[in-house]
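Page header: ASSEMBLY MODEL / two components / 542 residues total.
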Amino acid sequence: MSLYELLLAPFADFGFMRRALVGCLALALGATPVGVFLLLRRMSLMGDAMSHAILPGAALGYLAFGLSLGAMTIGGIIAGLVVVFAAGIVTRASILKEDASLAAFYLLSLAAGVMIVSLRGRNLDLLHVLFGSVLALDDASLILISAISSVTVLGLALLFRPLVLECFDPSFLRAVSRLSPVAHYGFLMLVVLNLVSGFHALGTLMAVGIMILPSAAARLWARSLPATLLVAVLIAFGSGLIGLLVSFHIDVPAGPAIVLMCGVAYFASLLAAPGGVLAGRLPVRRHLES
Amino acid sequence: MQPDLPPLLRFDNLTLGYERHPAIHHLSAAIPAGALVAVIGPNGAGKSTLLKGVAGELRPIGGHIHLPEFGRKGIAYMPQRSEMDHSFPVSVFDMVAMGLWHELGPFSGLSRAQRDRVGHALEAVSLAGFERRPIGSLSGGQLQRARFARLILQDAPVILLDEPFAAIDTRTVDDLMHLMLHWHGEGRTILTVVHDYNQVRQHFPTSLLLARELVAFGPTAAVLTDAHLARARHLSEAFDDNAPECHVEEAA
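Prediction written out in full:
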């Protein structure tokens, strides 16, 4: 097999592979930077929780309108935002911390979602909602994913300074400005949007994979925030590219292949990166003078 | 105290607390503009609570805090336990530069002049050359210096410091104390929670001795007497859940 057949032919010959690649690029540019901030805010697992929370909205849209892109998207976004704001209100008004109130809402949301899907369930449809269909992205889905990525890049640019402060010194941000809740909830809205966009390509369960895994890998390499963001985006897109090729050549599902490639990048970084597990076990190098 | 200056901050029968239990009880005092005040008292006396109240982090459950005309915008507050996430990948320069928030807001970049001011602030706390280091690589004392550099840039007329010298070596304490005296010379009003009475006697013209209630307020020599300190030590820290409602006259 020539290099051309290995790397380029799948994309040159098949439109669905090109669409999938464009989808991966959009996700890498939008969802992955959001994942970096989730990671830095120690909310990695919260992304997972949120991805379950959007299920009933998507399911309701599906129940009412069938496999309609618009209905499932809007349903997913509404369900995600309801959970985010309800958890926020409970956190502020009760003694429960954010993780507890969020867990309560997303568990309920997930149960409701599975119930709704099974009400009119053929298992195939449930599989689509849970695992996405990166190889069957139509024009409308592609435009949706790209639009959400564009909004995300713009939103992160606008929120960047307050969000960074909210991450590393929230009490200082509260002391000097009133933007703390704007940064917090604005960011959570971006999380919901990107989970919905990721869910069309990778499904609700794996959308978080392309957010968190490249971010965790990048954090092991980079020392500054801009570098972390850049490395994470590159890892995410690279994993998308290789995952699609693997899926094409050995005929495995594309979504899991992409997330597994992110996992390969993560483990490789754990071994090789300066922040990884091996770096601390290497022979001690001669120390510097000061 | 400088009785000729009008009061800048006034506590009027102020009660601050948590879940109805007072941590500051019926405090009335007037802080003159430009005063350098040591807020002293045993643990649990309400010192941090008072600063939180002035900073606006805690709403009074009785009485009033009369703020100066410029409001909370002119108050810089440095809490005791920083919530700062030291593992966050941000440089010392960027962290200190955020002291310019009131000039920069969420969007503006730093002008050359502002970059220079950040540089000068770092020099003033002997952290020149640390600009590009990540904050996670600083020692406890260096981090406290960086927080002071950020305070310099905040350029606030009122500065609240909650135990700025906790777990800091003497040289750093001397440097930071020097900086506070410099601010005092510039006419800023400073409230600092301190535990070292020698330091208070040496540097702070005014003291406010708390033991949940006000024990004494005035020139340090008159406040730090054996009788006052003995009274402060008898403070009961206990919160009694069955305590009756307090009915001290609201208009004290």
